[in-house]
Amino acid sequence: MISHKFNTLFIHVPKAAGQSVEAFFLDLHGLEWEERLPLLLTPNEADKIGPPRLAHLHLEDYVGQHFMSQEDFDRYFKFGFVRNPWSRAVSFYKFHGHHYLMSFEEFVHFILPQLIEEERWFYGPQREFFFVDGENKADFIGKFEHLQDDFAKVCTALSLPVKSLPHKNKSAAKGGVRSLKKFGNRFIKRPETWPALVFKAGDKIKAKNYRAYYTPELIAAVEKLYKEDVAAFEYSFED
């Protein structure tokens, strides 16, 4: 997200409260969601200029793809948020309805690695959003785990009134029809997945705390998939 009005650039890492931050800035700009084009938050069909949703551009892409000048990039406040990789993996599990189709163990071992490879712009390591040639180019990277406190630091840096972020885009933990309707193209058009729904082959745990989904083996598997994030942002399973 780019805001020329407030001289800031927000790097939206998927599943790390990004829509809440965007909603905050839309309100500051007096814009509705349908009017979000000025903040560069629209879908994108041109692979050469970025991911399927421009909201998820990497930091270096704003200049590299000519969305802003190098001069503005250098002087704007650049920030984003990251999330505990083990918590984020559970959020991915629920976000597109996989928890209706398979166990978390199956998701981590067979589906998540494939998603990281095929849709890296969404499921890939968070480090890639901020680092260029091994160097962090953001001015501030907050953490989802203490979102409100860290967002207050962003407001202070931008000389904005400190406000609580609205809660947006929470992964549905219940209500299969609603979840599948929102992201129906992934499953409704794949009849081979329907038996899993009928025979309830999905989430047997149904816990709010991500830690409940893990065995020592799964902790190690997710750490291997997101080792860059664990090192760059100094995360541990218990964080």
Strand content: 5-15%
Helices, by number, come to 11
Level-2 CATH architecture: 3-Layer(aba) Sandwich
Helix content: 25-40%
Number of self-contained structural domains: 1
Largest sheet: 4 strands, mixed
Number of strands: 6
Spell the H/E element sequence.
Answer: EEHHHEHHHEEEHHHHH
The secondary structure category is alpha/beta
Low-confidence spans: pLDDT under 50, at least 5 residues? Answer: 172-180
Mean pLDDT: 89
Could you say what the CATH topology is called? Rossmann fold
Which word captures the global form?
A: globular
Question: Order of strands side by side in the largest beta sheet?
Answer: 1-2-3-6
Ends: how far apart?
27 Å
Instruction: Report Rg.
Output: 18 Å
CATH class: Alpha Beta
